[in-house]
Amino acid sequence: QVQLVESGGGTVQAGGSLKLSCTTRAYYFNNCRLGWYREVSGKEREYVSSIRNNGSIDYAHSVKGRFTISQDFVENKHMMYLEMNNLKTEDTAVYFCAACFTIDAPWLEVERWGQGSQVTVSS
To answer: Which helix (DSSP H) or strand (DSSP E) does residue 11 occupy?
Structure first.
């Protein structure tokens, strides 16, 4: 099964920046939306941002203007990134790379998940 492998994350002070990466096999998810969700313990996993190969990009209202999603193809790999700037304490969560979903659909309908990366923003 083709996996989504995440890297990045960590701990940063409020106002700081972090970058998450998600790597998968090039062109395997060509027809799918790729993106990011996040989950705080005890709460529903929530949509953060997504991108498609046609250039379509979308952000949740809570991160618009602070987060930037991008992607690149390097040899046989498809790399997706989430650059997070001006981080706030409320951005603290486990962030999951996701593939093949509809933005407004329940998160349980996402077809493929990465392993999750902890992002902690301290005050």
So the answer is: strand 10-13
